[in-house]
Design a protein that fits this description.
By secondary structure, the chain is α+β, with helices and mostly antiparallel strands. The protein is built from 4 helices and 9 strands; from the N terminus they run βββαββαββββαα. The strands form 2 sheets. Strands 1, 2, 3, 4, 5 and 8 form a 6-stranded mixed sheet that branches. A 3-stranded antiparallel sheet has the order 7-6-9, with no helix packed on it.
Length: about 210
């Protein structure tokens, strides 16, 4: 009797990370939020969605309008202002048993120290943040409550993957600057908000 063919993943469900320099359109970030250091006047965006990689990852639905988001915040010495956009996606992107927040998009102006990272700016606007043991960004403002980068089947179900390919146990970081040790990232740990494409390729090989 022939073995049943394994389910094929249509994509992965995760938070993608976007950047905008000086009012330009959203661009997929070249590094994770824990190492990216936006400048005063920049915008950073996060979008929760099902994606096959960077080519089809959904951008935040709100434009990176620094003036509109931070226009009323005066710059103070030793700080910078970063516009933050968090797009929770729609019902089709939600994990089984979960519903996106009633407010689909959260925006805010983070006033942080000049050397602050994107993750620290995000924590000012939309905490609590949830990371897994490999420092992957799994949840923003408590959404989703569980899971981290699961593969999604063609039918919308979750593909079962070997334990070695599954994300490690989750850890919560709810305060500004309270995300997991950024030294882990320097050692080469994957970050979901940056590495959607890398995770996709790695799991296809697995």
């Amino acid at each position: 009797m022939a073995a049943a063919a394994p389910a094929q993943a249509a994509g992965y469900r995760y938070w993608s990370f976007w950047e905008s320099d000086g009012g330009k359109s959203w661009a997929y970030a070249t590094q994770g939020p824990a190492t990216a250091r936006p400048a005063d006047g920049d915008a950073i965006g996060f979008r929760f969605a099902i994606s096959n990689g960077t080519n089809d990852t959904s951008r935040p639905s709100v434009a990176p309008d620094f003036t509109g988001i931070c226009g009323g915040v005066e710059k103070k010495d030793g700080t910078k202002r970063v516009a933050v956009v968090v797009d929770f996606g729609g019902p089709a992107d939600a994990p089984p048993g979960e519903t996106p927040p009633e407010k689909p998009v959260e925006v805010g102006c983070a006033q942080v120290r000049e050397d602050a990272t994107g993750a620290e700016a995000l924590a000012v606007v939309a905490k609590p943040l949830r990371y897994d043991g490999a420092a992957m960004l799994c949840g923003i403002a408590g959404y989703p409550a569980r899971g981290c980068g699961e593969p999604v089947a063609e039918t919308g179900g979750t593909v079962k993957t070997p334990a070695s390919a599954a994300p490690s146990a989750s850890a919560t970081a709810g305060e500004e600057g309270g995300s997991p040790s950024f030294g882990v990232l320097a050692g080469g740990a994957a970050v979901l908000a940056l590495g959607g494409a890398a995770i996709w390729k790695a799991r296809r090989r697995g």
